[in-house]
Amino acid sequence: MSEPRTDEDPRLEREEQAFFDGGGASPAPEADPMGIGRRADERDQRRLRQQVWVFVLFLVLAGVLVFLLRGELGYFFAPGQPVELGAAEELAPAPLADGTFVRLSGVARDMCIRAEVASGRMRYLYLLGSETGARMLVQSPAPPGEGCAGAVERSFEGRLRDLDRTDMYAAVLGYYRENFPAAPRDGPMYLLEDGLRPRDRWAYPAALAGLLLVAAANAALLVRRARRRARAGRVAGSDAGEGVHEDEGEESR
Prior knowledge:
five-stranded mixed β-barrel
């Protein structure tokens, strides 16, 4: 029969010493045993990446829209005072700038063709009186119920289009050259969109502004989310530092 252990038992003393030294203590519980914080952090990172992609997408769309509508946007922001070209019979044979807001006067002959466009029913004319005037077609709103007017004399004001830079009016230009002897067969040709002022078409800048507004909203969300993550990281770092200091204090005691 073994003798009962006393307080002077060396094995007991070693066990007690190991306990107070931390060797016999159970390990500290994990801070996040279920992984809830880790999953929340992964979800937050995934949402952050999605917002970055949405932001980039809208920036790309805005850039493409600016490129495709550069002519429309340029004319929208053009000066509101038209460039005076004078009388059609006095037009100098000089190049004219595309997308300029111009005004000229003279006699224009109706080509007796009509077209339905977004802004309504249009008629097409060409100017008389000079070689440069013959290079100038006019798209003007067709008066309701009026047939082919022959020739009209008045002032025309609107956007000047260089037909070498657009094929939108290729059919009109082809008809003019095929059916009217006065039509130049080569060289620059122009079309005046009569009645179209620089601030008339708001749809294009409004669409661009909408895309930029969405991109700006996503940028604000990105900044807010990044600040929140940085703040959470600082809090987690300070908590970890406090835990280390507490452990060091307990070991020193």
